[in-house]
Design goal:
The protein contains 6 helices and 8 strands.
Length: 182
């Protein structure tokens, strides 16, 4: 009798561990593997964002609808972010006369972002985000709250590409050219 109770207890522990492992896997947070990410059905939450610029003025992302938008979530303390921003700045200068709008959303303090903008001469608007802002973006991209995270929207405001991790100059320009083509 004692032996059968021991086997029953072992079986119950094994079954409980199996169910717990299955449930944990189902509830696991999204991954943060760099690369292109599945495109969300809507850009609504992204376009509804209103964030302060470096002067403290509220800027709504929807104001740039009608242009190809490159929306980049970054931080001054994020090495991969700092690596890609010079390419973003260069490409934004090339498309200054085209219907293209770059927007950087810094997850940092206003003072740190302003110092970075001044030192790097970033030619596009840098807005001040927060961890809650990054949660909205991560929720759209189904990723962990990792950066850099870039959304590229077409002129109608639909998300065309989502990239977790760095996006190099050639990939960025290729995507923009494709969206500007008639």
């Amino acid at each position: 009798m004692r032996r059968s109770l021991r086997y029953l207890a072992i079986a119950l522990v094994a079954a409980t561990a199996g169910v717990a492992g299955y449930l944990t896997r189902q509830a696991a947070p999204p991954t943060a593997t760099p690369g292109d990410v599945n495109i969300p059905a809507t850009a609504g939450p992204l376009l509804e964002m209103t964030l302060p610029d470096l002067a403290g003025n509220a800027q709504n992302l929807a104001q740039w609808r009608g242009k190809v938008m490159v929306v980049n979530f970054w931080a001054t303390w994020c090495p991969p972010c700092l690596k890609e921003i010079p390419d973003f700045a260069e490409v934004s200068r090339r498309y200054v006369d085209a219907p293209v709008q770059f927007v950087g959303i810094g997850i940092d303090t206003a003072a740190n972002i302003a110092a970075f903008q001044e030192a790097q001469q970033v030619p596009y608007p840098l807005l001040i985000g927060s961890s809650q802002t990054l949660q909205v973006a991560a929720g759209l991209a189904d990723t962990a709250q990792a950066m850099p995270l870039t959304f590229i929207l077409d002129r109608s405001g639909s998300i065309h590409r989502v990239r977790l991790g760095t996006l190099n100059r050639d990939e960025l320009e290729g995507t923009i050219r494709a969206l500007l083509a008639p």
